[in-house]
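Help needed: design a sequence for this.
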């Protein structure tokens, strides 16, 4: 974001400044276009892949019409856990941001680039925050980060010690530290950083922990216990069956490790409007728990959390299928739900739910006049009475049933 130098200078000299937003609002589509162009350059780093793979990529986002600023107040604070250094506030129904230094030494603790980034990030939040949900990505590689958490902390701390002992040169120490993870895709890097920083994460409290403690209890039932971070930054799993037992991540089951990120997200990070992305949530899980995770996701959806999952689990899809077919207004359905220990909170509206399968199909590519065969996403049919139709899953199950029936009946003949 283009933040004028004189505005930052004014803030450092006077302790406060106002940032008008009208000019930024008029340029929203241009800002998005520039962001898309810059983001395309980052795709090799995002995927940790060769630049040649992205030479012909197009990444486009635009708004149909300009929108009014969000009416609600937005406030962002920058600093440490003990002291706020910079406060940025957009008052309710206002078209400006007020920046205020929370320190008395003329901003000597703040670097110009830090202020520039903070103001730019706040402008982005005001202009686009209500349009683009905040993502929390749980990658399929998550179990490894849980096991090697202590080693990751030790390695980075040693690196910081080595860097601090060196004579000052022109190199950027943070660039050196980031190179440690340069061979990993962005979601994997973020998972590693999340696990490393879990002691600080545990100090926060999500709206679920305050308003929906029963949902967190359901999650505890799925993993069979709770996670605990000690004051000395040690991470343990405490089983429900014996609260005296403390298991390290090495000693815990693979399913406990694979759900670690999700558990801490739900209890400490989760906000309404978030986008939770989970790669293969069924990883290392018993079929019964795969069904319970589907029910947990349904409750989160109904509480305003957007969820995106990739899955190969028929159990997960079939359970979501049942939740869509449940009609809380139908007396016979209610009896079935009560008998099977389902809650009305788990009932899913088909209008809130979409399923896509990756398949080869005829598609019209940009610049072509005729359709050609290529990989694309095909939407599945979803009916509120019949549920989801996923042909690839159904065909595999039917094929297995045919083989089993043939073996059974032919052997009898």
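Sure. Designed sequence:
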């Amino acid at each position: 974001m283009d933040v004028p130098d004189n505005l930052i200078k004014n803030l450092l000299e006077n302790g406060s400044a106002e940032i008008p937003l009208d000019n930024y609002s008029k340029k929203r589509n241009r800002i998005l276009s520039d962001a898309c162009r810059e983001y395309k350059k980052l795709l090799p780093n995002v995927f940790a892949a060769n630049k040649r793979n992205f030479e012909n990529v197009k990444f486009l986002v635009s708004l149909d019409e300009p929108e009014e600023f969000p009416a609600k107040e937005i406030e962002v604070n920058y600093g440490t856990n003990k002291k706020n250094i910079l406060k940025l506030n957009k008052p309710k129904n206002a078209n400006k941001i007020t920046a205020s230094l929370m320190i008395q030494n003329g901003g000597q603790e703040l670097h110009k680039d830090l202020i520039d980034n903070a103001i730019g990030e706040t402008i982005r939040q005001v202009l686009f925050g209500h349009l683009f949900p905040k993502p929390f990505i749980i990658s399929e590689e998550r179990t490894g980060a849980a096991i090697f958490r202590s080693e990751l902390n030790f390695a980075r701390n040693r690196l910081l010690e080595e860097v601090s002992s060196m004579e000052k040169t022109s190199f950027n120490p943070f660039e050196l530290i980031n190179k440690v993870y340069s061979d990993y895709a962005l979601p994997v890097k973020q998972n590693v950083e999340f696990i490393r920083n879990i002691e600080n994460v545990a100090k926060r409290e999500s709206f679920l922990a305050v308003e929906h403690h029963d949902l967190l209890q359901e999650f505890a039932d799925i993993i069979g216990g709770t996670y605990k971070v000690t004051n000395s930054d040690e991470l343990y799993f405490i089983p429900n069956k014996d609260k005296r037992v403390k298991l390290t991540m090495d000693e815990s089951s693979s399913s406990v490790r694979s759900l670690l990120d999700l558990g801490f997200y739900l209890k400490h990070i989760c906000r309404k409007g978030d986008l939770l992305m989970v790669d293969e949530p069924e990883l290392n899980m018993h079929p019964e728990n795969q069904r319970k995770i589907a029910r947990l996701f349904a409750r989160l959806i109904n509480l305003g959390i957007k969820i995106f999952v990739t899955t190969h689990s028929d159990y997960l899809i079939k359970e979501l299928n049942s939740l869509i077919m449940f009609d809380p207004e139908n007396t016979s359905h209610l009896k079935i739900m009560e008998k099977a220990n389902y809650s009305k909170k788990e009932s899913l509206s088909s209008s809130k739910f979409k399923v896509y399968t990756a398949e080869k199909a005829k598609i019209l590519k940009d610049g072509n006049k005729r359709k050609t065969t290529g990989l694309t996403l095909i939407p599945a049919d979803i009916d509120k009475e019949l549920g989801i139709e996923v042909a690839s899953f159904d065909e595999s199950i039917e094929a297995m049933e045919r083989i089993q029936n043939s073996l059974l009946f032919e052997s009898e003949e």
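The chain has 17 helices and 13 strands.
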